[in-house]
Each structure stands twice: as structure tokens, then as C-alpha cells.
Design goal:
The chain has 152 residues and is an alpha+beta fold. The chain is 24% helix and 50% strand. α3 packs across α4.
Length: 152
């Protein structure tokens, strides 16, 4: 098990796109909602309206978390500006989320947000059915595998 292989596997499990829960927090309030994400060159992207709570929370606190299945991601969000100013990313977004693209992407208030993953935690089970976690630190480029001890 190497850092690079496990990082590739985690990103492969997410695929080119996925639905996941996005958590944002600001002013002592944390919120979460399901979002449509795309994965491109190691970053995760989504679009949202600049009049929505998650946008305002990200403006104040760029630390975000995503959960999709057994994969949990902590990262830093960057507001890139109006969605259609990023044709390369929006072309990918349209491929996976055509209805959302047609409905929202052309709106002036719709913005593209990029998440740079910093930590990835993945829950797995070994061949005997015992749980363990894989911790990837993308800043330090380290990996740690820990059994999850189930006790009464």
C-alpha cells in the first residue's frame, strides 16, 4: 500500500462525478446538503448560487468537508467566479449534469467552486470482515492504515 496508489484508488472510487454531502460552516453554524460534484485533475468542483447560504459560509470559512459513501474528504474551497467563465470545467459538468447545467449555469449569480482536497479518510473491511480506516494526508503526502477496534 503506497500513498500514490491509495490516492488514485480513492479518486477512482469517486469517479469523474459523484453526488455527495457538502458541509460548510461559518458564524458558529454548520450546514450540510447534497451536491453534484465533478472530479478533474485531483480537484473537486461544483456550482452554486452566490445568493445561497453555502456560498456565504465559504466566503467566510473556506474549510469544507464532503462525504460520499465510505469516503470523507476535508478540503479548502476556492470561489472561481461565474460558472460560464470556466468553459473547460463547465463542459465536463454539462456532460454529467445536463439538466443542472441548462437550468443554472448561465445565470449571472451562478459561481463555480473548486475544492482542493487536503485529507481523505476511507472506511474499508478486510477479507475477514474487520473494519479499518485509511487516512491520506495530501499536504504531507502520507498514508496511515488503522484497524477500527469494535468493542462492547
Amino acid at each position: 500500500m503506497t500513498y500514490q496508489n491509495e490516492l488514485k484508488e480513492a479518486m477512482k472510487k469517486l469517479g469523474g462525478h459523484f453526488l455527495g454531502a457538502l458541509a460548510t460552516s461559518a458564524e458558529n453554524r454548520t450546514t450540510v446538503r447534497t451536491m453534484s460534484f465533478i472530479v478533474h485533475e485531483g480537484s473537486i468542483y461544483f456550482q452554486t448560487g452566490s445568493d445561497l447560504l453555502k456560498y456565504n459560509q465559504i466566503k467566510e470559512n473556506r474549510n469544507v468537508a464532503i462525504c460520499s459513501g465510505n469516503i470523507q474528504i476535508e478540503g479548502i474551497a476556492e470561489i472561481l467566479g461565474q460558472s460560464m467563465q470556466h468553459a473547460d470545467i463547465m463542459k465536463i459538468y454539462k456532460q454529467y449534469y445536463e439538466n443542472s447545467y441548462a437550468t443554472y449555469s448561465h445565470l449571472e449569480k451562478e459561481v463555480l467552486i473548486k475544492i482542493s482536497p487536503k485529507k481523505i479518510t476511507e472506511w474499508e473491511y478486510d477479507n475477514e470482515g474487520k473494519p479499518y480506516r485509511i487516512f491520506l494526508d495530501l499536504v504531507q503526502e502520507t498514508i496511515c492504515k488503522e484497524p477500527y477496534v469494535v468493542s462492547n
